[in-house]
């Protein structure tokens, strides 16, 4: 990474609409820090987040009702704008005089039937903020980055880590290795099913200047029943993603803690190794079905680009921030479960607290390796079903 990077911007949601009171409190603190940071806040856009659903009896409608009540309590009723009908949901984006697409024109009926907008939520330019943090780190003499060669493996003697070996063969000794490699963590330490890498489909659509003006004040819009998540126009494009069951990419690798054995893991397949990959056909079709109803002008527009983006998921959606269960000198800081970005201003301190043994008991318990709880926070539910094998269905850009 560095100022020479040429990745396009990407935006993520910042909000505290968690049903789980612990995450709600942490998210509130993190959001305030971003708002009060003169550098980060330049890239924060408080345009609200709308949660819609089809209103039919299902776990998604149930979650929608629960999150609405939670949002009213946490953010205050003055920040909640309810949209009780299909037309109101549509008009919230397209203006009061607009007319929603007739249901007869939609295969499978309408899905954007009721919604609420939480005006306190925001979106943020993730790339710019990471750059700001990187630049700050570069000014701290004790911080140095080694770019260009990833960690190949962690060296372990007995049950004590000694440091890491990079892919280019460089040996780095360290008293403590923090595994914060997101969906790539499973190759560095054995995590079994405690953390599972899952890929999700994301696409970007270019908008005209007139469209950017027309939709500039829209909120981030998420449909819990279909899984679609769509951002307002930002730098000439709209980001769309889907909370589908996701994809896996099964590979056989050496067991990180016993190289004489092999294990199968899901491992991120990205455009770095497979530059022509584009999202599977069913993912594109599902996104377009949503667009046809809620953003009809974009329903048939070519995607500028699409990606499978990888997250590190845990069964409960809780992060994994804890010492390695059996190897001294390794600390785990992974399991972001698709919702960790918003904690960026505070998560580093919490990782340090965890390493120093000063993390609050409730967070020690929440982020522990061995957990009894199977309760899942449903603030950002995935669609039902198991992840599909990506290599069987991935398509290629011609
Ligand atoms: C499509 C999508 C949308 C999301 N939207 C939101 C949102 O709106 N709000 C929100 O709060 N969260 C969101 N998230 C989740 C959020 O992005 C993650 O929870 C967060 O990025 C996790 O941070 P991390 O540092 O643990 O892992 P990552 O961000 O995945 O970072 C891991 C880093 O480790 C590096 N790495 C991997 N292997 C090695 C190695 N061997 N050696 C050296 N470096 C290595 C990788 O290159 C990468 O830079 C979203 C995630 C996705 C995929």
UniProtKB/TrEMBL annotation:
Gene3D superfamilies (UniProt xref): D-Amino Acid Oxidase, subunit A, domain 2, FAD/NAD(P)-binding domain
Keyword Ribosomal protein: no
Domain FAD dependent oxidoreductase, chain residue ranges per copy: 105-353
UniProt keyword annotation of Oxidoreductase present: yes
UniProtKB keywords: FAD, Flavoprotein, Oxidoreductase
InterPro entries assigned: FAD-dep_OxRdtase, FAD/NAD-bd_sf, MTOX
Residue ranges, annotated region (Disordered): 373-398
Cofactor field: FAD
Family: Belongs to the MSOX/MTOX family.
Protein known as: FAD dependent oxidoreductase domain-containing protein
